[in-house]
Design goal:
With about 190 residues, the protein is α/β, with parallel strands linked by helices. The chain contains six helices and seven strands. It has helices at about 25-35, 75-85, 115-125, 145-150, 155-180, 180-190, and strands spanning about 5-10, 40-45, 45-55, 60-65, 90-95, 105-110, 130-135. It has a seven-stranded mixed β-sheet, sandwiched between helices. The longest helix is centred in the C-terminal third of the chain and has 24 residues, at about 155-180. Its EC number is 3.1.1.29.
């Protein structure tokens, strides 16, 4: 039987945060839910969860959006992983990334958290840094703006025009990662070095 993947989209709960850069993980999971053709329901792991397959005959996935605040994402992620019997090597976390320009998507396995409190809490809860990350670029804050203020702001009107394409690309990256592996996903979504 094919392994099940846990795909987690990070964000903060509630309508006041829904358009924030920090919630881009939730937005990507909504895009994936649309592709699966299902809707999220409450789960005891403190996450909204949707089970399904990515594409006909595709891998079985559990999409999870923690209902806790970003810096408390670890409990819901480890809770869902335990509940569905999924090891860290089959966990994919979709999150906002300051060090990637807006409209770019990068993938990696493991590594540091780069000051991202959601990732830090997940690493602590899973007991390892070795889980996959789909990093959706939100760019650096302008001028001297604090990074926290930047990620808790909504996307600009110019960015919102391109956001559907970015979300679609990030969802594609998740699909390729779970179907074909990290290397293939990186080759499709990372620009070639000149």
């Amino acid at each position: 039987m094919a392994e099940t993947w846990l795909i987690v989209g990070l964000g903060n709960p509630g309508p006041k945060y829904s358009g924030n850069r920090h919630n881009v993980g939730h937005m990507v999971l909504d895009e994936l839910a649309g592709r699966i053709g299902g809707s999220f329901s409450s789960h005891r792991s403190r996450a909204m969860v949707l089970e399904g397959r990515l594409g006909i005959g595709g891998p079985r996935v559990v999409l999870a959006k923690p209902t806790t605040y970003m810096n408390e994402s670890g409990g819901p992620v480890s809770g869902a992983a335990k509940f569905f019997g999924i090891g860290p090597d089959h966990v994919v976390v979709v999150h906002d990334e300051l060090d990637v320009p807006f409209d770019a998507v990068r993938l990696k396995l493991g590594g540091g958290e780069g000051g991202h409190n959601g990732l830090r809490d997940i690493t602590k809860a899973l007991g390892t840094k070795d889980y996959y990350r789909v990093r959706v670029g939100v760019g650096r804050p302008p001028g001297r703006m604090d990074a926290a203020d930047h990620v808790l702001r909504d996307f600009s009107s110019a960015e919102r025009k391109d956001l559907p394409f970015v979300l679609s690309e990030a969802a594609d990256a998740v699909e390729i990662l779970v179907r074909e592996g990290l290397l293939n996903a990186q080759q499709k979504h990372h620009p070639a070095k000149a």
